[in-house]
Write a structure and sequence with these properties.
The protein is an all-alpha fold. Helices cover 42% and strands 0% of the residues. The chain has a domain of 98 residues: Orthogonal Bundle (Cytochrome Bc1 Complex, Chain D, domain 2), CATH 1.10.760. The protein starts with a helix and ends with a helix. The relative contact order is 0.10. It holds the Pfam family Cytochrome_CBB3.
Length: 213
């Protein structure tokens, strides 16, 4: 009998504790405890156009996924730039994109016909008094793609840098388009279809042998 009474007392105490913990006035109500990593529990908010966020730059030496490797030559490294080859092999679509970018960013000075007669010069009637260099005649015709890319990156004489308007790949596409036009503007040849595998010599000879008999 005593044992039964003890069991009932323990059960009553446990039930009371459970009800107290579930009640609105329990000791742990509205108290989630300590957070181990609050910055991960509640991420810090940034204003997108704030000065702090605008000043954040990629880690030094890193390259954005899918982007080309950075250009390491300095403005004064003109001689080395002449030796830099275009890393892109442009197909028809690549040349069309190069032309589109050229017309937007270069045609206003150098002319969409690459003749140095863009709207800013306009045969001497435009706001710019001196004729910009033409790409199809004169000394620029002998520039390598590396030299033209270098000029587009750092500027030259009165021409400013276009590195902020065109990324590395876009600059190479523009240069590739200019060089293609200097070489006659021929579109790259389409890849020839794969030749059918040659027939086995024994199989090919079989009809001839049959005809002889």
């Amino acid at each position: 009998m005593k044992r039964t009474s003890n069991i009932l007392i323990v059960a009553a105490l446990a039930g009371g504790a459970f009800l107290a913990s579930c009640g609105n006035k329990g000791p742990h109500h509205r108290n989630p405890g300590k957070i181990y990593a609050p910055d991960m529990y509640e991420s810090r908010a940034y204003e997108f156009y704030s000065a702090r966020l605008a000043s954040m730059k990629p880690v030094e030496g890193t390259v954005k996924r899918g982007a080309m490797l950075p250009y390491h030559l300095k403005a004064e490294d003109t001689a080395q730039a002449n030796l830099v080859a275009n890393p892109l092999v442009l197909d028809k679509a690549g040349l069309e994109e190069g032309k589109r970018l050229y017309d937007i960013y270069c045609g206003v000075c150098h002319g969409t016909k690459l003749d140095g007669n863009g709207p800013l010069y306009k045969g001497g009637d435009g706001p710019y008094p001196a004729a910009p260099p033409a790409f199809l005649t004169g000394k620029v015709l002998g520039y390598t793609e590396g030299r033209m890319f270098h000029v587009a990156t750092f500027g030259f004489n009165v021409m400013g840098s276009y590195a902020s308007q065109l990324d590395i790949e876009q600059r190479w596409k523009v240069v590739g388009y200019i060089k293609n036009m200097q070489n006659g503007g021929k579109a790259p040849a389409e890849a020839a279809p794969a030749a059918a595998p040659a027939a086995d010599s024994a199989t090919a000879a079989a009809p001839a042998v049959a005809a002889a008999h």
